[in-house]
Amino acid sequence: MAPVKNIKKARRHTKTLTLINIKPIPLNLSCPALRIDLQPNRSKSKIMLLKKQILLNVLALITLQTVQAQVKEGRIIYKRKINIHRRLEDESMKRMVPEFDSARSELLFSADQSLYRNVKEAEDIRDQAGQDQDGPVVHMKFGGGDDQTYKNYTSEKMTQQRELGPKKYIIEDSFLHYSWKMEPDTQTIHGYFCKKAATKGHQGGAVTVWYAEEIQCPSGPEDYGGLPGLILQLDINDGEVVFTADDIDTKNLDKGLVHAPTDGKKITRDAFRKMMEDQFGPGAGGGRPVIRIIRN
After folding, report:
1. Which long-range contacts (CB under 8 A, 24 or more apart) does 242-247 make?
2. How do residues 1-49 score in pLDDT, each as one tens digit?
3. Within this chain, do residues 128 and 64 fall inside the same structural domain, yes or no?
4. Are 155 and 57 part of one and the same domain?
5. Which of 49, 148, 149, 213 is most deeply packed, by most CB within 10 A?
C-alpha cells in the first residue's frame, strides 16, 4: 500500500503546462496621406526615394506657408527721435532747448511702389521754448515739413519733393544705392523677426538698420532701402537720429495715395544740395534732417 500513497503525493505536485500557438500578424503603418508597408522585399533604393518624396512635400508645405505670410502692402508709422544737443556747441543754447525732439512720419507701400512723408501734427509747445522767459524766443524746425520720397521699384526711379523756405522743389533721380553689411544679430519689432545691417550714411557716419524680410518692400525711412525686406528701425550716428516703427497696418492701404509728388519746381539733386549749403552751411545737403533754430 505504501507505493500507492507515494504516487498520489507525486500527482499532487505535478503542474500542467499548456502551449499556446500565436500566429504572426503583419504590421502596416498608415495615415490619410501616406502608407508604408514594412515588407522585406523593399529595396534600399525605393526606401530612399520614398524618403526624398516625403522631404520634398514637407519643404513645399513650409514654402507655401511662408509665401502666404509675406506682407506686400501696408502703412508704417515711424517715430523719429533727434538728439538736438549732439548738434549744438553753444552751451547757453542747450539750456534753452530740450535735449530730444520727436516727430512722426509714414511709409505707404504696395508691391511695386512706396511713398514716404512726414505726418502733419498739431504745433508742439516746445517750438516756443523760452517764450515765458526774459531771454529770446527759440523756434525749432526739423527738415522740410512737406518733404516726400516716392519710389517705383519697377523702373528703379525715385521722385522727391523737398521744401526750402516758402518754395517746393521736385528732384527726379535713380535709386540711391548703399553698400550694406549683413550682421548676425536679430530682434523682434512689433511681432516681426528682424535682421541687422549696417552701412555708411551720406556724410560718412554710421548707419544701422533692422529690417523684416516678411514685409516684402525694399524701403524704409528717408531714402534708405535696398534690403530684402522693409526697415523697421534706422539709427544714424549712434543715436543722433533714430526712426522706429510705431504702428504697422497691413490691411487698410489706400493705394490712391501712393503716387509721385508733383507740387514744386523741377531741379537737379546737385543744384538743391548747393542751395541747402548756401543757406545752412556745409553738409546741410547731405541728407540728415536739418535743425533750424530761429531767435526772436
Report:
1. 242/80, 242/81, 243/78, 243/79, 243/80, 243/105, 244/78, 244/79, 244/81, 244/189, 245/76, 245/77, 245/78, 245/189, 245/190, 246/77, 246/78, 246/79, 246/104, 247/76, 247/77, 247/190
2. 445 444 444 444 444 544 445 455 454 544 444 444 445 555 667 677 7
3. no
4. no
5. 149
